[in-house]
Amino acid sequence: MNDTTTTEQEPTPPPAEEVEQPSEAHSLLYRIAAGDALAGVLAVFLAFLVGSVMIAATDETVRETAGYIAARPSDFFQAVWDAVSGAYAAMFRGAIYNTRVDDFQTAIRPLTETLKYAAPLILAGLGVGVGFRAALFNIGGRGQMLLAGAAAGWVGFALDLPAVIHLPLAILAGLIAGGLWGGIAGLLKARTGAHEVIVTIMLNYVAYYLVLYALSRDFLLQAPGSNNPQSLPMKQSAILPKVLGDRYNLHLGIILALVAVAAVWWLLNRSALGYRIRAVGGNPHAARAAGINVGRTYTTVFFIAGALVGLAGVNQVLGTVTSGVTTDLDAGIGFDAITVALLGRSRPLGILFAGLLFGGFKAGGFTMQTSENISVDLVLVVQSLIVLFLAAPPLVRAIFRLPNKEVA
Amino acid sequence: MSTTADTPATVPDELGQVAVVSRKTPILLAVLVVGLALVLLFSDSVGETTFRVASRNDLFQIPDITVPGRATAWVMLAGCALLTGESFRRLLNQQKTPLWLVATYALLWMTAFLSWAAIGGRVPVVGLFGGAVALAVPLVFGALGGVLGERAGVVNIAIEAQLLFGAFAAAVVASSTGSAWAGVLAAALAGVLVASVLGLFAIGYFVDQIIVGVVLNVLVIGLTNFFFRQVLTPNAETLNSPERLSAVPIPLLGQIPLIGPVLFRQTPLVYLLYVTVAVVAFALYRTRWGLRVRAVGEHPKAADTVGIKVNRTRWRTVLLAGAVAGLGGAYFSLVAVSGFNREMTGGAGFIALAAVIFGKWDPVRATLAALLFGFASNLQGVLSVIGSPVPSQFMLMLPYLVTILAVAGLVGRSRPPAADGQPYRSQ
Fold first, then answer.
1. Which chain A residues have a beta carbon less than 8 Å from that of B16?
2. Quick check: is B38 in a domain?
3. Please, which pLDDT band fits residue A21 given cuts at 50, 70 and 90?
4. Which residues constitute the domain of residue A311?
5. Under 8 Å CB-to-CB from B168, ≥6 apart: which residues?
6. Is the CB of B7 less than 8 angstroms away from the CB of A136?
7. Does residue B141 share a domain with residue B65?
8. Residues near B94 by beta carbon (within 8 Å), at least 6 away in sequence
9. How far apart, in whole angstroms, are the C-alpha atoms of residue B396 and residue B344?
């Protein structure tokens, strides 16, 4: 990052305030070369490149052909191409459109799977993102999802109500449980200054053991007569209905996620509370000087964040896996949500697209694992690399020897 | 990264506490006495409790101690009550509660608790403490790594990643070379590798350290799971069946009753741990290097002004911290079990992080905290064998709860190094 100067071929970039309205073509060109958009694309490219290397390095045929690479290099490169393209083609088939079947309704099924996986990522990503906007780090997604899932699950299997009341009540129970659990971290930060990162990490484990305890006592969550830490399955009246008919697994969760995106957008950009949240996030001292109750804002933000992440837990228990509450119900979403929020730059629309992207990765990853025998964990690697590279545009620029934006 | 993820460094202490002597300790002691007394009052278990202190190969054998459970518990608890009274008396005289009082209290309280919890059973005292030391090994290594990094001003949420990658590297290298020690070395190197990524982004590119740490955890889970499934599982014979590090008793020391089997009949990794704790504690407080590390973590600008290369010091410390934390990873795949498994560290890195905070960023206190957490989880294991009335989940929850109380200032206030988590740009 030290060998680049900006003034060689291009004019200096416009000051930050004017970046929003590019007036001239060359400044636009410059922004593409020096702006975050290109670095973003390159970050994704780099992440997939690393993924490709991992696929090729662990492929049987590649390793065989590497043994005689000097004699017949073409075999080696063919094998690398086959392995890598096979894997990514399988991901495409699993995430968007299955090219191997003729019937359109079956071929489009992967896209609905992507939406299904995206819903909890979007919801939890919003929860983390709202926190970021107030400069609060919510790593407590796992705990918030677990408690929300447990609460919604209990309402879902223990009560007998008509669907019109049962489903909303279960969702509400999860929302409040997640919110209250998240609120603990906000309250502690407001009252004692306890760092929310530490508190939320620790609360994850406390929540895990609480739910595990409840799942081993049949007067709480455990299914009667069972020794497994699992509750009874959800009653039909509490299950999120399928939205595209029984052919697809897609359930109402995705609609919930879309509504949440709109609600959070309104909250952050149009409401007084959202203004306070952003003010506190920008500079808590200035916000305090301006008469904003910073402590109360922390608590409120963590309640909202927990409630949103909690909805992701609700989505899992009442929609995706309705066979009962377990301690695995978070399925890593609480942590994935952090990468979603970072990739979406904490903006509701950004989180929506980041969630869709990572949902696609997840759906495609499972297909890749079953059809190409490549571990779905590759997706985790690619995802985290994308976020790492995105977080350090200068590094990406240095790798590709692009002009550096930050050089004045 | 956009500025949205910048966490405010500190929240000013608005409570403005000016009390010279904390009231918290005596209150906490009193609460614990009342709590256990209530439990004793309302439980109806009657019988005798046996404490087994001796083990084979001791210089001389101490016979088992059998006592009436409830009566012993009440006597010990009475002792606790007396000590609590003394603590309050000192509070009235503006004196602090001394460490010996707390230590004696803890011992009595624990004996009282065990006398009650193990009624009708036998408490294997040696196994209880020896197992705790063994379980604490990765926690102590991880906590020391955390302390080093944070003292230099780099928050390390990625201890978990360093442990996990260390465990992975240890299993693979120990299997392929046939030497467990090569595995231990590889574990340290793996920790350094993770630390170098942390350093690259956190120090080199000023990315929020918490973000890097969180993402590194996910990255290492992804990497190790991927290679475990694609490479280790098909080649388990050659790549994932390391020789285990076995216990090496130290002559003489190992034969002292109680202390010997607990401290000196362990694996070489534990002895390495003793050395590491001593070296880190000495180096951090008694050497020029340690002074510089602490200066860089407390006030990097001042350090820079007197000619200390801030970021170079941070880099070196973070890499060293990675090596220390990585060593702890070897415990999982070379000591606890033989071989690597998916996500086998199971959150130990986060307990280590908890120990860093509970130990107030001090190597010795963090070590004690890690030992305490190791004890809590081993106690849970022992109690579930005896069949105790305390749900195991609550015992396992303890380290995390205690940490929350610690950061919230309910059990003494934990204050991080002043420049912890802040990247430094020299001007």
1. none
2. yes
3. very low
4. 107-373
5. B190, B224, B227, B228, B329, B333, B340
6. yes
7. no
8. B20, B21
9. 17
Q: Are residues B33 and B64 in the same domain?
A: yes
Q: Does B385 fall in a domain?
A: no
**Residue A135: which of B8, B225, B409 has the nearest Cβ?**
B8
pLDDT in tens, A277-324: 999 999 999 999 999 999 999 999 999 999 999 999 999 999 999 999
Per-residue pLDDT tens digits for B277-321: 999 999 999 999 999 999 999 999 999 999 999 999 999 999 999
Tell me the chain B residues in contact with residue A379 when contact means C-beta distances shorter than 8 Å. Answer: 222
> What's the domain count of chain B?
2
Higher pLDDT, B116 or A177: A177
Domain of B109?
Answer: 24-120
In angstroms, the separation between the Cα of residue A238 and the nearest Cα of chain B is: 29
Tell whether A391 lies on the interface with B, counting CB pairs under 8 A. yes
Spatial separation of the C-alpha atoms in residues A137 and A132, rounded to whole Å: 6
- Closest C-alpha among A213, A143, A222 to residue B396: A213
In a domain, A133, yes or no: yes
Residues of A in contact with B157 (CB under 8 A): 197, 201
Give tens-digit pLDDT for A252-282. 999 999 999 999 999 999 999 999 999 999 9
Cβ pair A133:B4 closer than 8 A:
yes
- Average pLDDT over all residues of chain A: 87
Indicate which CATH number applies to the domain containing A283: 1.10.3470
Please report, for the domain that includes residue B134, its CATH number: 1.10.3470
CB contact under 8 A, A135 and B4: yes
A228 within 8 A of A168, measured Cβ to Cβ: no
Residue that is last in its domain, among B120, B135, B150: B120
ipTM for the whole complex: 0.84
Residues in contact with A175: Cβ distance below 8 Å, sequence separation at least 6, in sequence order:
A148, A307, A310, A311, A314
Q: Which residues of chain B have pLDDT under 50?
A: 1-20
CB contact under 8 Å between A202 and B401, yes or no, is yes
Does the residue B424 lie in any domain?
A: no
Judgement on whether residues B37 and B162 belong to the same structural domain of the protein:
no
Of the candidates B346, B385, B384, B351, the one whose C-alpha atom is nearest the C-alpha of residue B366 is B351
Q: Cα separation of B53 and B51, whole Å? A: 6
User: Which residues of chain A neighbour B208 with C-beta distances below 8 Å?
Assistant: 391
Which of A375, A385, A397, A404 is the mutation pick for testing B, counting most B CBs within 10 A?
A: A375
**How many structural domains is chain A composed of?**
1
A391: nearest CA partner in chain B = B1
Q: Residue A404 — pLDDT band, cuts 50, 70, 90?
A: low
